[in-house]
Description:
Strand content: 15-25%
Number of domains: 2
Low-confidence stretches: none
Order of helices and strands: EHEEEEEHEHEHEEEEEEEHHHEHHE
Structural class: alpha/beta
Largest sheet: 6 strands, mixed
Number of strands: 17
Helix content: 25-40%
Shape: globular
CATH architecture of the largest domain: 3-Layer(aba) Sandwich
Amino acid sequence: AIVISPNKTLVAQLYREFKTFFPKNKVELFISYYDYYMPESYIPSKDLFIEKEAEINETLERMRISTLKSVLTRNDTVVLASVSAIYASGDPRDFATMNIHIERGNTFNRKELALRLANIQYNRSEDVSAGGVFHVKGEIFEIFPPYEDFGIRLYFFDDEIERIVTFDPINRKTIEELDMVTIYPAKEFVTTQEKISGAMRNIESELEERIKQLEREGKYLEAQRLKQRTTYDMEMLSSVGYCSGIENYSRFFDGRMPGERPYTLLDYFDREKFITFIDESHIGVPQLGAMYRGDYSRKKNLVDYGFRLPAAFDNRPLRFEEFLSTVGQIIFVSAY
């Protein structure tokens, strides 16, 4: 089940209450992970471009990843969410399949394991406070998933895994012996190298088409600006696999067509098996409907004036009709 509420404060209050009401269920919180967020925008009347500024709350980021993992693996999950539930998220197919399954007695090359962890956004580090890291000490391999409060320790004999245990990261004491464990991605957005290569070709193709269109319209400054900015982003993607504003290229990574809705948290649920509650629906329904229009209005200036490719339009919240077609059963709740 998912309960969508109009603001973060109310969602947090409901989260605390639901943890008490459903002690045996997996109750999760899914809200924006920004403590501060200023989206990029352009004001034509002042010829003013405003760069994106953001401060990410690592605790909230970890809770979002925990939510995705819980929804995929447990049928008793209850999610308390804000309108973040209708904003673009990673492809659930990638999140579900780009995991690492480890069993006691299996053979696993440690260098290969480190590489596979890096591919799903884990970093090699001794600092375990933020989660999403791993480190190696001799034949002991420790992994700290961001969605768990414990670490996972693998004991190797050569390339064979002899033991798998969970442990407390603070006092280092063993919690439980395991026969197997599955490691899920450390970030919400993960993708394969094949998808990155395909995305690069499609970005280049759309860039060429858009430059021609702008030049036909006599917008030579905008065409040059778009070429410089997009070429730089592509160079960053090729060299480090990331660029500022990478979310504006999400359609290419997801393999979606222009105008096709993005993946969201709702796509992680089985549509036939979950129910949606809209809390304070007299506020929540208009809010859900307004998110798309506000996002489109801001993006239109960025696209028209050569700051972004038209693909930026497809990194967006759902339209209200798309939201209704994505969820299964839905109950609108309001108190008067």
